[in-house]
Amino acid sequence: MTRQIRIVHHTGYSYAENVLGSHNEVRMTPRSNREQWVINSRIDIQPNPWVLNYTDYWGTRVTAFEIRERHSRLGVTSTATVEVTRPPEVAPGVTWDELRDDTFTDTMTEMLAVSEHVDPGDELCGFAKAMAADAGPAETVAAVVDRIRDRVRYVPGVTHVQTRARDVWTAGAGVCQDMVHVSIGALRCVGIPARYVSGYLMPSANPMPGEPRTAESHAWLQYWDGAWMGLDPTNDSAPGEFHVEVGIGRDYSDVPPLRGIYSGGGGASELYVEVEMTVLD
User: Which SMART domains match (predicted)?
Assistant: First the structure.
């Protein structure tokens, strides 16, 4: 089924004191691909900035901007309307021999690297390797994600964007980005390429058309099974018609919605985020 969805994402910072200037990057524009089509989109920024738009190495749309005037508040609003058609897919399938081919691993090296951010630790990597010894790649993915869901509870506020996957595994708690980091690291431990996907998810399975719903940013992953296959470990499902994709990268650090620096003054800063999603038809 095709869904047309409008997303309005407000974010920014308020500063205790005026800052002299700031340099920032925004990754909040949905991607157009074979599963979703961006009908329209725009980024509004206050105060009025100098802007450069480009597509980064991973294929994510970026709005880079510079503000060269005093300001005590930075505001960014992304507004987009997206048509999503994401039918169930059957993976082509891949074997361990294909995953271990030198040419393939060289091509996928960035999505196979077990960095400190996504390394889940010896216990989970050991579990993944034991599964891989007796099962195929797809079965290993399913078993690893089931193990993570059994161990890691969804608990907001106990982690932050720089929390390491091994600390999430030890604590047994985190949010969507944490479950994705743990999953990505465990799959990479056994040579299955996996990548981080940022975006949005409608908070209701049966939304009323035209009724705005309070939402938030969401994260899921894609793993290689002869093609990139989507998997949402938080909801134990494949991405569906209410998932809207924004960016792809090795982990969260490649796709933050807003990142930047400021100079002069500032003092303490406070981030604010509001997301609203509306199904239009």
Answer: TGc
